[in-house]
Amino acid sequence: MGKPTGFMEYGRKEPGYRPVQDRVRDYRAVELRFAEDGITEQAARCMDCGTPFCHGCGCPLQNVIPEWNDHVYHGRWRDALEVLLATNNFPEFTGRICPAPCEGSCVLGINREPVTIRQIELAIIERAFELGLVKPRPPAVRRGERVAVIGSGPAGLAVADTLNRRGFRVVVYDSAARAGGILRYGIPEFKLEKVIVDRRIALMEAEGVDFEMGVRVGEDLSYHYLRGRFDAICLCAGARQPRDLAVPGRELAGIHFAMDYLTQQNRRLAGESVDPDRAILADGKSVLVIGGGDTGSDCVGTAIRQGAVQVKQVEILPQPPPVRSESTPWPMWPYVMRISSSHKEGCERHWAVATKKFKGANGRVTAVCTVDVEWATPTGAVRPVMREVPGSDREWKADLVLLAMGFTGPKPNRMIADLGLRTGTGGVIWRDAANMTNVPGIFVSGDMSMGASLVVRAIRDGRQAAAGIEAYLDSRGISGESGGEECS
Ligand SMILES: Cc1cc2nc3c(=O)[nH]c(=O)nc-3n(C[C@H](O)[C@H](O)[C@H](O)COP(=O)(O)OP(=O)(O)OC[C@H]3O[C@@H](n4cnc5c(N)ncnc54)[C@H](O)[C@@H]3O)c2cc1C
Ligand code: SF4
């Protein structure tokens, strides 16, 4: 432990955000970073508890948090980096956009504010880049086996990075123009600047990972073709089938899925072409976002930057409590009201509102009709049941409606039938404990098999899939270490 009395001497501090009036004028990152003395003080708050719940039950990657905190407090950045990279391939992503379940299970959080773990993680990796400690580290020995990874989101990147470090030859295929999956095309620039994604991809390329972009596997390239050229394949194609709203008027122009809207803006900022006839823009419009989660919040921030006249967000579920709900006691991830940086930029939020229909004129949406709902758990039932409140009908002016109600599972893809893959609820791909599907040698990782989740879970699952692939290839003994060659 860096400083035994630190948790009593210092309160939790966060670096904060750029002022709203500045940040809404551009798409640059909104969150600030700690100066070095600030981060040392925050690391000193770690109590190095006997049972570090942050590490064991909070962080899906099982990041060894108390150890980094000690190294950071003493200024041992190289040691902190080594501990961090032992469990997390991409701390520069999680340090920026992880909702930090670790902080929900920090022991200090029982009666005080938890340690600012996510910010410390970010400080370690960014300081390491600044100090030149993060350099390409190609494997010392190359193995003979080749692995194809389909999808370059965080799961695919974690599979590729982990296997490449173990000496396998890895090719990542993706249908998009650039690598990163939702990190690149879903999450807005103001939460995760794309230079951060570029920096990691460049590092992976320098370490020997090949990226083949603009290839729709299953369409442009068959899985059978890949099977003939690779010793194992890992499917990491995400779960991007959006949940739709089948109510009257859904066919009107001006109603779009959130991911289509966010992808366009990220493409625009990257200088990629966007068909002007299909452009989805919020400038001068009254925007209604349907869905109160993170994707909806990303739409809010984007619409505000595009110059929307007003942005409102409705959610069918009730408003969460202001403090941790009794249903999620410590050390569980708290069910609590969350306010994103985008919400603070000028959005009106409403809960327990169900959409009944869309109204329009000349084929374009002009308004959304809703009714308020109540949620109550009937005696003997386990889950609450929704009931419409009589006479609570409302009409919301809207010329742009963004549907952000989550994802139902992987998008339809020919490969699933081509390969005869077993699927589960929502079409997610079944896998065993080593991430292997019912077809030997075909593995799956990330949202495609877990359902829509988090970046940190995608990385964890990618690491697990890589371990499964290595064990599978070892068991087949194709070439193993004996077939390896020294890297120059
Ligand atoms: C708008 C939005 C914001 C989010 N914000 C956060 C956040 O702040 N924090 C957080 O932790 N999580 C967030 N998430 C969730 C997180 O981004 C996902 O859980 C994570 O990206 C899943 O990773 P993945 O690698 O499984 O899939 P994806 O990131 O979806 O990547 C799948 C990749 O597969 C490619 N692909 C698909 N089919 C094919 C094919 N046939 N051939 C070739 N390539 C193919 C796609 O082009 C894509 O690049 C957010 C999600 C969304 C939608
Ligand atoms: S990856 Fe997320 S959960 Fe794990 S230590 Fe970092 S912020 Fe916490």
Please provide a brief summary of the model:
This protein has 488 residues and is α/β, with parallel strands linked by helices. It has helices spanning 6-9, 20-23, 36-43, 53-58, 65-73, 77-85, 91-97, 101-104, 117-130, 154-165, 182-185, 194-206, 223-229, 258-269, 294-306, 414-419, 447-450, 455-476, and strands spanning 141-142, 146-150, 169-174, 210-213, 232-235, 241-242, 255-257, 286-290, 310-314, 347-350, 353-361, 364-376, 385-388, 394-397, 400-403, 407-409, 442-444, 485-486.
Can you offer a commentary on this structure?
- A 5-stranded parallel sheet has the order 4-3-2-5-17, with helices on both faces.
- Strand 2, helix 10 and strand 3 form a beta-alpha-beta unit.
- The protein is α/β, with parallel strands linked by helices and 488 residues long.
- The protein contains 18 helices and 18 strands.
- The protein is globular and about 70 Å long.
- The protein has 3 domains: 6-130, Fumarate Reductase Iron-sulfur Protein, Chain B, domain 2; 141-240 and 408-486, FAD/NAD(P)-binding domain (3-Layer(bba) Sandwich), CATH 3.50.50.60; 251-257 and 266-405, FAD/NAD(P)-binding domain, CATH 3.50.50.
- The two termini are 41 Å apart.
- Helix 3 packs across helix 5 (65-73), helix 5 crosses helix 9 and helix 6 (77-85) packs across helix 9 (117-130).
- It has helices at 6-9, 20-23, 36-43, 53-58, 65-73, 77-85, 91-97, 101-104, 117-130, 154-165, 182-185, 194-206, 223-229, 258-269, 294-306, 414-419, 447-450, 455-476; strands at residues 141-142, 146-150, 169-174, 210-213, 232-235, 241-242, 255-257, 286-290, 310-314, 347-350, 353-361, 364-376, 385-388, 394-397, 400-403, 407-409, 442-444, 485-486.
